[in-house]
Amino acid sequence: MRTLALLIAVTSGVLFAEEPHAPATKAKAKPPAHATASATHSPAPASDAPDMPSTALAELSAGNARFMAGKRTRTLDTGHDAAMRAALVAGQAPFAIIITCSDSRVPDALLFDQEAGRLFTIREAGNAPDLQGIASAEYAAEHLGSKLIVVMGHTSCGAVKAIHSANGKPLPGNLWALQAGMAGLLESTPQDPNEDTKAHLSRLEEANARRQAQALLDRSGLLSELAAAEKLWIVPALYNLASGKVQFFKPLAAVPALQAHH
């Protein structure tokens, strides 16, 4: 089986670096064209929906480039809203799953310039999915055919700041669940003696996105199998509130489960 690294280099068209280059934007977005679903099957993807993890990531990157440039197309095409609603009544076939923070400043559909039916969004404080969030991602990947999971943190994250400020002490109310979901973050990313708090928080935000993506892979056998078969990419990312840019990191590698010998 080809390795994931080879797949990235040859097929993706997206460069994973600290500042990846976005693919060229489309001249004009097409209206949604979801196929009618039966009562027992998921609908077919829209005619222009990405059909591979690499093309799904390229589409998100292109949409983010439009958002940054103030040239959104899909989310401004209100003339097709009625037709879109009618098409989506039959079902959904989102090409990407976005696991992101509950922060109101992170409007994933807008910052990726994708209309209804194209993104399956799971929002949890600190982009730390609980068991139900993981089950939701499994449903979208296995039943709806999503090709990509982006686990996206963001700058100025209140959840990360709360964990940092608590420094191991219990947070009030049910915020203990937030601490449980982000357990080990401070220990894995300690503050350097010469590092100020702002710089440390920035590193924690990126580290949390990477850790939550890895935890998703570690906690879900279904998602791990899809990733190992190269049918799904799980990609950590970080959204910059000031610039509007989403920084994608490399897809996580998944090791296929060992087959039992009989």
Structure notes:
With about 260 residues, the protein is an alpha/beta fold. It has one domain: Carbonic anhydrase (Beta-carbonic Anhydrase, Chain A, 3-Layer(aba) Sandwich). It contains ten helices and five strands. It has a five-stranded mixed sheet, sandwiched between helices. Strand 1, helix 4 (about 110) and strand 2 (about 120-125) form a beta-alpha-beta unit. Helix 9 packs across helix 10 (about 220-230). The protein is globular, with a radius of gyration of 19 Å.
Give the H and E element order: HHHEHEHEHHHHHEE
Determine the oligomeric state from the structure: single chain
Structural class from helices and strands?
Answer: alpha/beta
Mean pLDDT: 85
CATH class group: Alpha Beta
* Name given to the CATH homologous superfamily: Carbonic anhydrase
The major sheet is characterized as:
5 strands, mixed
- In the CATH hierarchy, the architecture is 3-Layer(aba) Sandwich
Instruction: Supply Rg.
Output: 19 Å
The order of strands across the largest sheet is 2-1-3-4-5
Tally of alpha and pi helices: 10
Here the CATH topology equals: Beta-carbonic Anhydrase, Chain A
**Share of residues in strands:** 5-15%
Overall outline = globular
Q: Kindly report how far apart the N and C termini lie.
A: 23 Å
